[in-house]
């Protein structure tokens, strides 16, 4: 099992709850355990679990980064 925290920057939109919409969409992705809205350099912290690094990469690259409003991500893979 591979666990990671993905830090997400979200763009701005016409709606005030734009980050919340991205949070809701990301929370529906298989492998995502929880999503937190935070204040600071990043807008969301996503807790992801996958069976291996290849699956983790697929979740981040193909799902999280493809979510509407996501500008960038930074992945923190748990090592120990």
Characterization of this structure:
- The protein is built from two helices and four strands.
- A hairpin with a 6-residue loop joins strand 2 and strand 3.
- It has a four-stranded antiparallel β-sheet.
- It has one domain: Alpha-Beta Plaits (2-Layer Sandwich).
- The termini are close together.
- The model has no long low-confidence stretch (mean pLDDT 94).
- The longest helix has 12 residues.
- The chain is globular.
- With 80 residues, it is of the alpha+beta class.
Q: Beta-strand percentage?
A: 35-45%
Secondary structure category: alpha+beta
Alpha-carbon Rg, integer: 12 Å
Sheet with most strands:
4 strands, antiparallel
Which stretches are poorly predicted, pLDDT < 50 over at least 5 residues? none
Distance between the termini: 12 Å
In spatial order, strands of the major sheet run 2-3-1-4
Order of helices and strands: EHEEHE
- Count the strands? 4
Proper CATH architecture: 2-Layer Sandwich
Quickly name the level 1 CATH class.
Alpha Beta
Q: How many helices does DSSP assign?
A: 2
CATH topology: Alpha-Beta Plaits
Please bin the fraction of helical residues: 25-40%
Categorize the overall geometry.
globular
Number of domains: 1
């Amino acid at each position: 099992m591979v666990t990671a925290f993905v830090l997400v920057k979200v763009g701005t939109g016409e709606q005030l709850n734009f980050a919340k919409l991205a949070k809701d969409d990301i929370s529906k992705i298989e492998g995502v355990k929880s999503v937190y809205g935070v204040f600071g350099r990043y807008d969301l912290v996503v807790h992801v679990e996958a069976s291996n690094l290849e699956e983790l990469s697929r979740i981040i690259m193909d799902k999280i980064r493809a979510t509407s409003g996501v500008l960038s991500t930074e992945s923190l893979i748990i090592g120990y």
